[in-house]
Amino acid sequence: MGKTKYKPVEDVNSQVVDDVEIAEEVEEQRNDGEVEEEEEQKQEEAPKSFEELGLDSRLIRALTKKGIEKPTLIQQSAIPYILEGKDVVARAKTGSGKTLAYLLPLLQKLFSADSGSKKKLAPSAFILVPSRELCHQVYSEVSSLIELCRVQLKAVQLTSSMSASDMRNALAGLPEILVSTPACIPKCFAAGVLEPTAVSESLAILVLDEADLLLSYGYEDNLRSVTSIIPRRCQCLLMSATTSSDVEKLKKLILHNPIVLTLTEENDKDEAVPSNVQQFWISCSAQDKLLHILALLKLEVVQKKILIFINTIDMGFRLKLFLEKFGIKSAILNGELPQNSRLHILEQFNAGLFDYLIATDDNSQTKKQKEEAKGEENKENNRNNKRSKPKLDAEFGVVRGIDFKKVHTVINFDMPQSVTGYIHRIGRTGRAYSSGSSVSLVSPDEMEGFEDIKSFLASDKNKDSDIITPFPLLTENAVESLRYRAEDVAKSVTKIAVRESRAQDLRNEIINSEKLKAHFEANPRDLDLLRHDKPLSKTAPAPHLKDIPEYLVDPKTQEASKMVKLARAAMGNTRRSGGGGGRNNKNKKRSRKGSDPLKTFNPNGSKRGHGGGVGQKKDGRDSSDGSTKKQKTV
Ligand SMILES: Nc1ncnc2c1ncn2[C@@H]1O[C@H](COP(=O)(O)OP(=O)(O)OP(=O)(O)O)[C@@H](O)[C@H]1O
């Protein structure tokens, strides 16, 4: 296996990708036993620009307009191979820019294929993704590139929930690119909306994005029926954040003699978690989780925007109601909500309309539940099946692959149920060249799973070094000062209140969803129709709970909070977050490194701890005993 070692791309980037190796191997050809071939590797290759990768000037201009100046490592590596027409398997950690790694060369190929050739009866490119949210995200990305490039290409998105006539209408304009979930393709064949023979004739590029998830979402049969009609000449690309037997299976099923690109860091196991994400944890009992999250948010010791993960929908509502009493507005995202609402919530959060999003990830749905949900969905017109319980969407997935913009902190209110779940959650921050942090609240019941995560992430060489370190900015006193209020309010958020709010929210969102459908059709860019962070409770929060009096907060936490605010200001993040994109990125990134209190705060007095000097108890809170512990610096 050949290896190419890349020098750091730039100052900022070197923090992220130092010591990155790209291992490339040429795989055996599917079924025909071709001898494994070694690729000639170029040594110590210098980072390349988009121009040097051979990208069309229209695409480069479009990227510039989006504020994207230089390719990420996976883009540098994959784009030339894809342009050459090779099948590629690309595995790179979350947030590393895999979407553009395949979209840019795919569009370029279609630019040239477009000129002069007669219109085909089926799309030339299929991009298959595991969830509707991802479908929408990729579709938006490809559409905006097409628009910015001013080329005559058309992309459409299809999902299984669409009616045959909607699908027919969408395909009527003979789009070149179809973005969809795998389940939708056989549905199109069955409804006569797409002809398998036309697909066989037209299909030139097939992309399986988030390949590690496609099979776990139960799409195996769907994918088999698609592969049976893929022409041999069709170029296939497989993108994934983690390796798994599922990826191997898909590779064998679909790809021909692929180039396998694997972005690994020195520490092989750490590779899936972006190294620009600082990971922290706090030990607390299950009952005290509300108290701790209140302390984190109310005392402002974590940076906004914040994505909070919980494992059940009810817990999400409980948390929202609880925070609401303290004047903290948040929105909820889960698989029970109608699709249009979900997309709208994501768009509003990305646009910075609110700072706290409470999400139930697909992790909380077991494979069996997903299959059941899918089965439910397939039982069309089953009128007898009048379940009062709302259905979970089998194609729901907020975590995997979704590009939450400018999320600075991920909080695991509940711990995820697997290491992969953890990696994907954490990967919602620190995307591309940005940095972020995560805080996991770990109860004794969750400790075993947490240890598994820690040992998975620990490097083989350095087993004792903790990748997830105790959270340094919250003192025990600060937490305790809020206990009385938190417990009092927690008691008032009863099961009945949670149930009623959940039902009410669903009713509202169903009504919203209809409005949103029309709205999305008429104004795909306008986000301001509805707000999703409205209070659930009919009573306004008590004024004394909205503001925490200064005397309640101990001086150390006050200092930490001040520093978080200063860091926020230094990062140009004082307004409502969102909007704007990468203005003056270079300067901001430089100041970011020095100003993040999680990297510099020392509760023992000195402001510049430089990654060390944090006195902590084993339970992740400050012990104030002056002992020091080295923190991970990034
Ligand atoms: N070259 C680049 N420079 C700066 N930002 C980039 C670059 N390429 C992509 N991005 C941005 O980085 C973010 C993450 O990209 P993307 O969603 O493609 O990551 P990913 O590798 O697919 O992650 P995941 O595995 O979680 O799906 C996006 O907001 C994207 O616009």
TrEMBL record:
Compositionally biased tracts (Basic and acidic residues): 365-383, 616-628
Any one of the GO CC terms: cytosol
SUPFAM superfamilies given in the database record: P-loop containing nucleoside triphosphate hydrolases (SSF52540)
InterPro entries, sorted: DEAD/DEAH_box_helicase_dom (IPR011545), DEAD_box_RNA_helicase (IPR050079), Helicase_ATP-bd (IPR014001), Helicase_C-like (IPR001650), P-loop_NTPase (IPR027417), RNA_helicase_DEAD_Q_motif (IPR014014)
One matching Pfam family: DEAD
GO MF: ATP binding; hydrolase activity; mRNA binding; RNA helicase activity
Assigned EC number: 3.6.4.13
Domain spans labelled DEAD-box RNA helicase Q: 48-76
Stored SMART domains: DEXDc, HELICc
Residue ranges constituting the Helicase ATP-binding domain according to the UniProt record: 79-261
Protein name: RNA helicase
